[in-house]
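Internal ticket #5521
Category: modeling
Description: The requester needs a full-assembly model to guide mutagenesis choices. All entity lines are attached below as received. Residue total reported by intake: 756.
Assigned to: D.W.
Attached entities:
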Amino acid sequence: MSGGVGLVQTQQAVLFDEDRPLRLESGARLAPVEVAYETYGRLDEDGANAVFVCHALTGDAHAAGHHGDPSRPGWWDNLIGPGRPLDTDRFFVVCANLLGGCKGTTGPGSIDPATGRPYGLRFPQLSVGDFVTVHRALVRHLGIRRLLAAIGGSLGGMQVLQWAIDHPGEMHGAIVIAASARLSAQNIAFSAVAREAILRDPDFNGGDYYDGPRPDRGLALARMIAHITYLSEASMRAKFGRRIQDADEPRYGFDVDFEVESYLHHQGRSFVERFDANSYLYLTRAMDYFDPFGDPVQTARRLAKVDTRFLVLSFDTDWRFSTEHSREIVRTLTAARVPVTFREISAPHGHDSFLLPIPEYHRTVAGYLDRLAAETTA
Amino acid sequence: MSGGVGLVQTQQAVLFDEDRPLRLESGARLAPVEVAYETYGRLDEDGANAVFVCHALTGDAHAAGHHGDPSRPGWWDNLIGPGRPLDTDRFFVVCANLLGGCKGTTGPGSIDPATGRPYGLRFPQLSVGDFVTVHRALVRHLGIRRLLAAIGGSLGGMQVLQWAIDHPGEMHGAIVIAASARLSAQNIAFSAVAREAILRDPDFNGGDYYDGPRPDRGLALARMIAHITYLSEASMRAKFGRRIQDADEPRYGFDVDFEVESYLHHQGRSFVERFDANSYLYLTRAMDYFDPFGDPVQTARRLAKVDTRFLVLSFDTDWRFSTEHSREIVRTLTAARVPVTFREISAPHGHDSFLLPIPEYHRTVAGYLDRLAAETTA
């Protein structure tokens, strides 16, 4: 892939302070709130060509380009750049690290001004609506009048959904990929076991581990558990089968022997280098409670005001948020006469498909953004 | 359900001793080997009405009847008893705790005569073939001439499969339920993560925890992870949905809040009361390496001698060992002209279905055993 957005920098802005604290849905107030974000492309003079990218559970603001080493691009670099579906020659693309995250936006690892020490579990509980509140403050800060679109996969898609239904009129299009309007019991079960792995790590120390050893064992286990759900069974079979690691013969012991074990260990090890266990707890818990269509009467009332048009995408081998989750979103929106385009993309990679350059997927996103742009400039 | 086999006792026998140690497939020798088993019904004079029950990963010898409290029957009590599919008025039913287990058969928690202390991880690695070797010794010990059938679900079915192909002529029928001839990469991944939870528990202490605190946190986590794979997504949804535990309103915190969390916690807690972490490691690892059809040439040669007839059963909502795993067994046996009856049973309960009194399932097993009995007495 040639081109790309090239060298970029993560920026930071204090969007809420003691005088204007962030009010959370729980009623709690939080200040200061600093937000890390990146932008690619240029904002038009009328401030109407912006596309907001919402990241998934373990993503960050660095969605595209690179920070000095072109071989280490942002997590959605294949989607964002000149001539790519989120075409930075045409669109002003923004991505921000989530509230509660650990990559530059205020989260449980930030200093609590009341104590001078990291919040840890004294950080307030968060909802997907709270993530959206912070994104909206950044949109205002950047002088964006109205979003052409918001787009996100998985937890990113959940933010897009919440934003579009809570704040009708703030975006022309909403692209919700491999997401869910409510986690199933099985989804919550995986999420709960991953959190237990962290909470039971003796180094977790009630969330106050920033001065000492970190709960790396628990966090790595959480990642390993979750990672199994990100891949389809078929892609795991194709990638690893039952191959033995670094040897002709099995060693018949409890050390890593099968390649799939080695892969999961690597996932666990590299994750603890880049992620904070407390952030993992807060963000997964917000997903568990997410249920924007929970009250049918309120949903109907709110959706009646929505003039955003939706593109909902799922992947046929995704068993974390299967197509059924997307269909549920589509059914609810359609029942309320909100315009929705739905497509199930065939791809073997499971939930992780939303991160990959799958031609039909990229064509669909590109075509949809074209249409949105044509509609808004008509 | 009326009747049942009533009060039973677990018996024990030393089947291998210093003079005649157990030779394992790895080449290691083990002695003494004591085996815990139960029997239900009576052995005919010609010793040909015996049905051997092979238990799954976390089962034990106590398959039917009760040990004093009729409200706490054995794990397969719905299948075994007078007038039940394994009809104890007609059949002599035997069930033994697995080698490497922790319910009366020699395992890593047993005393190593060389040191006078529990084996821990000095216990030798085991294979499914080793489990079968010990079962066969028990069969001889009990004076059984030839098994009418061996039957088992999950890891139990894997033992039945191994036994039937390794020792043609020792059983008339083999009933292999919700099993697999080789774990998939995804199966191994779940198994690996569950083991990691144990191995990373600081109380694991390299397997030498019998004198001190036990790795209960890790073992409970392992059970919670595995348990998710035992239930279908639909049965989890039907059982728990997104219901909140003991409260009208969510508490929005990291404590148990959803019913599915409470259920998994209960599973974890009760499991550590009855199971040994080292046994969990040994038995799951034996499953990972199980691959009786791995070498096609050898498989064809061995299966040419098999005169056992097979009943292979799967459950349509089982995603741990899906119907595809059973079809693979059926394909291999059929290609070698081994007589196989295959049925996929429709049941909503996922992998756990093999433990439940599902009418079509029980009728199928009962009918098959009838046919086997008719054939052998004809």
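Resolution: model delivered.
Comment from assignee: The domain at 11-182+290-377 of chain B is CATH 3.40.50.1820 (Rossmann fold).
Ticket closed.
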